[in-house]
Design goal:
Chain lengths: ~160, ~300
Amino acid sequence: MSQPIRLTVNGTDLERSDLDDAERLLDTLRWRLGLKGTKEGCRTGDCGACTVLVDGESTLSCLTLTREVEGTRITTIEGVRGEPAGPNVLTAFGAEPALQCGYCTPGFVMALTGLLQEEGSTHRTSNLVDELEGNLCRCTGYRSIIRAIGALGDELR
Amino acid sequence: MRVYLASVATDGKANSHALARPPVTFSFVQPTSVEAALRAVGTPGSVAIAGGTDLLLDFDNQRIAADRVVSLNGLPWKHLTRAGGRLVVGSTLPLRRIELDPRVAVDLPGLYQSVHAVGGVPLRHRATMGGNLVRASPASDLLPVLLALEATVHIVGAYGSRASSLDDFLRGSRSVDLAPGELIESVSVPYPAPSAYVWQRVRPAKDISQVGVAVARVPGAGHWNVALGGVVPRPIRSPSAERHLTRLRPKAEEITRAAEAASEGVAFATDRRASEAYRHLLVSVLVRRALDKAIPPEAPS
């Protein structure tokens, strides 16, 4: 339907020519590439469940056109171990464990990984919690999530 | 590194979920020169996209439709520069970059606070100032601060470029002084400017602001500027509050008078987020809070 698009997803270079121009990154990841770890929550940018990294920056895949991220490096929860901060975040979430039903977890992990890797942002626990306000846990299981974040804040290093 | 890339067949059943919504279709182009972008957006049926965090929702809600989406992300408009006492913000610069600039929080605290008030970090990695200006939401967190800072909007069109004060640029919700085929290149504000932005929301992390109040003291001004958001279809200045605020450090009774006078003579909106009476109350409280936050402390003697 349209021109081929090149993406690097979790370290794998892809070229696809079956994508629609109006397609969202969320749908490309889930329905074209079968990467179901990235969740669809609200699809209106309110819940953060669809958060992935685009060139290392946390991004709402539901409000991002796949065409807009052509040529970038995309990381989903399936590939987060390959990000510099990914293993630590997974360890901290697993140790609690910082989840109840788990639906929001990929979004939290990706947003937190992005924050910890971001230059110029402060990584005190209170800042990290504040900066995750775009991620919603409908189980309201925030206490364990905040404890996991506490294990990642600068104060403990 | 372990890589997971499952090759799931994208059969009709798998896709049905995504396709259950009203299908949104358009073609996509991303020009790399301003001339090409102006030609593209000047073509009937085209709409410009920057961050897309509002525009794509408008497509989903069938509020707009277009044959073609013209991405502005290939243009050199992602700058954050300082020249002649003004901070110039490129229209397609993601809001997060403004927030992470180490000097914005110091020179323009109100701007920093308003950017921080927009959505969450992943949203701010894409959302832009140009998009916020064109959307001109009554509840925008950026517009009151930009209005209090007497921002200038720099616009390009096929004929050339022009500059407009933000006050002239804003008309109402989704209504701005931007002709078909024109694009916002940047927004500039004077600095340094003691300033603050405060807001009230039903649920702080998950809703837009009921009322937002910005105050700013721009270089050379004879008084504090006070701007109110979320009260009428576009953010407005409050001359009735400003006339009490001529001192850099107003006296306590002057702040009280300004807070009481701030919404004088203006009929506020009542909607599902707040009644008119509650908005009046919020404005008086928030004007006081914003001034308390913005007024510089006495220099130690």
